[in-house]
Amino acid sequence: MAAQTPVGELDGRSGWIAVAATFVSVFTCFGVVYSFGTFFSAMSEDLGAGKGATALIFGLTIFFLFGLGVVTGRLADRHGPRPVVLAGAVSMGTGLLATSFVTRTYLGYATYGVFVGTATACCYVPLVAQVSGWFVRRRAAALGIAVAGIGLGTLVGPPVANVLIEAIGWRSTYRVFAVVSVPLLVFAALLVRRAPAAAASATSLSFSEVVANRLFRYLYVGGFFMGLALFVPFVFLVPYAKDQGIGAGAASALVSLLGVGSLAGRLVLGTLGSRLGVIRLYQLCFVTMSASFVLWLVSGASYPVLVAFALTLGVSYGGYVALSPAVAAELFGLVGLGTVLGALYTSGGFGALIGPYLGGRILDATNDSYPVAIVVAMALNTVGTLLLFPLRGQRGPVSRSS
């Protein structure tokens, strides 16, 4: 067992070091993952695959990212985050290098979907749970800053990928990503220490204890429906813009703008959560996310409307990510939080596995009728929003068996 850390260090320097480690880790992982839309057209053409089959690579990545969170979170609860993150660094490098050599789509399912998804699962949930354990007074704000790395990674990754793909091709670009990402993840692993709230307990919650809670089930199913919709734009917004006659650079910039909005949502809503209540803001993020799809639906070839869509979706998604750990901590407490978060995130994983693939199949079946796919995504996200209404008025930790 990792050495325990004095509880007196809460809200102090060690906590902010954990924030920095988490920021670097998620910046790296999500910068890679959310640049996939920029690779999409080149990979699809080179591998001779349809939109649905190619989108499934991304869907599998998100599925493993969130689906394995319950495993990596529990491992971090028991053994500390450092060995888990180091394993993630190895998986990331292996996956990116192997993907650069694939000649068939199904090989990409394994090299990118499994390895890159597993790497991100190792480097996300364990570190986010540690940040929660290091803070009491400013937990929501600290989490907002930590996961702002996702927004910055989404801002930086796609345009860098676009420049590299145009210069050296998509395969060599993944090799560059591998060489850069592994040292950054190792650095993050070496920075972080186990949080006192995690070290204080030798055991963590079992999966059955977590899922037995009624409010957890509402969060879970709501997150599943949200995941069905949320990740569709991450795959198809760039191809959609290109189909509307928008240049490759400007199209790729839309995902970066989604990252800008996400960065703002994490920082602003994460900070406001400490003052206005994390559950209320969490619900507002779902409402805004559903409403944002209307902008995509009516955008046509209007780049300003697409920009507005990317920013609005980004803010709501960023708030969702920043507030999720704080909501889990408020409802279920800190003991075994890695297990709770990991279990909760599997909902988005299942949604992401199905959503982009479903969107691609709709496009393949309707001769690229994006309005149909957008309406379906918006409807699914709305269902997820409605499922969060039972959380209204909930204050403080609830019984895990309620």
Could you give the topology of this structure?
Blueprint: H1 13-33, H2 36-47, H3 51-67, H4 69-79, H5 82-99, H6 105-134, H7 139-168, H8 170-191, H9 196-199, H10 207-211, H11 214-243, H12 248-276, H13 278-299, H14 303-332, H15 337-365, H16 370-386
Helix pairs in contact: 1-6, 1-7, 1-8, 2-3, 2-7, 2-11, 3-6, 3-15, 4-6, 4-15, 5-6, 5-8, 6-7, 6-15, 7-8, 7-12, 7-14, 11-12, 11-15, 11-16, 12-13, 12-14, 13-14, 13-16, 15-16
Helical content stands at: over 70%
- Percent of residues in beta strands: under 5%
CATH superfamily: MFS general substrate transporter like domains
Given the helix and strand composition, which structural class is it?
Answer: mainly alpha
Number of structural domains: 1
What is the assembly state of the chains in this entry?
single chain
Give a short account of the largest sheet.
Answer: none
Q: Summed up, what is this model?
A:
With 402 residues, this protein is mostly helical. The protein has a single domain, classed as Growth Hormone, Chain: A (Up-down Bundle). It has helices spanning 13-33, 36-47, 51-67, 69-79, 82-99, 105-134, 139-168, 170-191, 196-199, 207-211, 214-243, 248-276, 278-299, 303-332, 337-365, 370-386.
What does this structure look like?
The protein contains 16 helices and no strands. The protein starts with 12 loop residues before the first helix and ends in a 16-residue tail after the last helix. The protein has one domain (9-391): Up-down Bundle (Growth Hormone, Chain: A). With 402 residues, it is mostly helical. Helix 7 packs across helix 14 (303-332), helix 12 packs parallel to helix 14 (303-332) and helix 13 (278-299) runs antiparallel to helix 16.
